[in-house]
Amino acid sequence: MFVIVAVVVIGVFFVTGALLGVSVAQNQASDRARRTARDRHISAIRTDALITQA
Q1: pLDDT (0 to 100) of residue 54
Q2: According to the lineage, what is the superkingdom (predicted)?
């Protein structure tokens, strides 16, 4: 009985960890995409300003 409970608890622990890891990975990917979009936008504004000055 004790072994079954231990296996279930360990299984829940690993499943929770895996789900948390996926969530963290998705958040990091989202943040990276947002930073990339922001950087491209800023770069486009700077390029436009340089072209306008010429």
Answers
A1: 59
A2: Bacteria
Residue recorded with tokens 């947002």 = 34
- CA separation for the pair 39, 47 (Å, rounded): 12
Task: Please state, in angstroms and rounded to a whole number, the distance separating the CA atoms of residues 39 and 29.
Answer: 15
Structure tokens at 17: 């960890």
Q: Give the distance from CA 45 to its chain's centroid.
A: 26
36-51 pLDDT per residue, tens? 999 999 999 988 887 8
Quickly tell me which residue has 């004790």 as its tokens: 2
Nearest-angstrom CA–CA distance, 53 and 42: 17
Q: How far apart are CA 5 and CA 29, in angstroms?
A: 36
Residue 16, SS3?
Answer: helix
